[in-house]
Design brief:
Number of strands: 0
Distance between the termini: 89 Å
Radius of gyration: 32 Å
Length: 343
């Protein structure tokens, strides 16, 4: 036994054969390890993604926005060109209003507001209100829920529609909550019992050797963190790390394994929730389309693709600005865009 391994009294001296039910337990352990790795991967990719996003993508977005604003200005100036037909002028006015609204949706700008008002003949705030009203009507028509209702009412109606209703037939019996509470209490007690045994062996104040005391302090912090968060697996891992000679089970019987398995299911659910939150936070931080497939492994490749596409968009915008620099070029460009609505 190395000096980093500490025999733990009360766990039994000899390795026991795997108890019945250990396979389900082992499967959960593997899933928990996968969830942990996923969390670690999301954390690891954040810094390099942030650096590349800030240094490469944001400047390209700014360039594209500047070019798009220049595009709107050129179309606005074209209104003074006497060589445009009435149909072409109507098309230009429509384009200026649409492009200005699109740019304003991304960020406010006084000049764009003025351009929108001149060409759309309404304030941008009125346009925003119309868009919100249409979106609310579409949401209510689709889901039958008023989006302006209090959030509690929206959640209640959503629960009823999507299987979470509170009909009497679906209501839980009186026995179900008490059974779940009793089970959770037993899980907490088993975690507490394991923690106490570890704490007894690891308490730094009981260790006279300064080096071992520092090591035990670190281990005790791990045990405290696991106990405070009601996490069983880290305590079992710590126990095995301290005394691997006892094997993974250290004499647990079938009932203990069943209880441990239920505890691990709770841990897995909590970890999977953390993974979902990590991904959602990542998407929100960098405004990533929820329809885009995103994992920690493909995040940087996805960003590289977006950078390439944005750079191509900037090049295209520069070319189009050149195409509409003079009146004949503008008329040709408008002719390409012309459709039945302009006639």
């Amino acid at each position: 036994m190395s000096e980093l391994q500490i025999p733990l009294a009360g766990f039994g001296p000899d390795p026991a054969p795997p108890p019945k039910g250990h396979k389900a337990f082992d499967r959960l352990v593997k899933k928990i390890e996968e969830a942990r790795k996923s969390l670690e991967a999301w954390a690891a990719v954040l810094a390099p993604y942030q650096e590349k996003y800030t240094k490469e993508l944001l400047p390209l977005h700014a360039t594209c926005r500047t070019l798009r604003i220049g595009f709107v200005r050129r179309l606005d100036e074209a209104q003074n060109d006497k060589g445009l037909s009435q149909t072409e002028r109507r098309g230009v006015k429509m384009l200026v209003a649409e492009l200005a609204a699109s740019l304003l949706a991304e960020g406010d700008d006084r000049e764009l507001r003025a351009l929108y008002k001149r060409h759309a003949r309404q304030d941008y705030e009125e346009h925003e209100a119309e868009v919100r009203k249409a979106a609310a009507a579409a949401f209510e028509e689709t889901y039958g829920i008023d989006p302006e209702a209090p959030i509690e009412e929206i959640l209640r109606q959503a629960a009823e529609q999507f299987g979470g209703g509170t009909d009497q037939d679906d209501a839980p019996t009186r026995h179900t909550p008490s059974k779940a509470e009793a089970e959770h209490r037993r899980i907490r007690e088993s975690i507490r019992a394991l923690y106490r045994k570890l704490a007894s062996a690891l308490h730094p104040d009981r260790e006279p050797d300064p080096d071992k005391r520092d090591h035990k302090t670190v281990l005790m912090q791990r045990a405290n963190h696991a106990y405070e968060n009601e996490r069983l697996l880290p305590l079992l891992e710590l126990r095995r790390e301290l005394d691997p000679g006892q094997g993974p089970w250290a004499g647990e019987d079938e009932e203990a394994v069943k209880l441990y398995t239920k505890a691990l299911r709770h841990e897995l659910d909590a970890l999977e929730d953390e993974v979902m939150i990590a991904e959602a936070d990542f998407r929100m931080r960098f405004a990533i389309d929820p329809m885009v497939t995103l994992t920690p492994r493909n995040a940087l490749r996805t960003l590289a693709t977006e950078i390439a596409e944005t750079r191509a968009m900037a090049d295209s915008l520069k070319a189009e600005l050149t195409d509409i620099a003079d009146l004949p070029s503008l008329k040709r460009w408008l002719r390409v865009l012309r459709d039945g609505d302009w006639a």
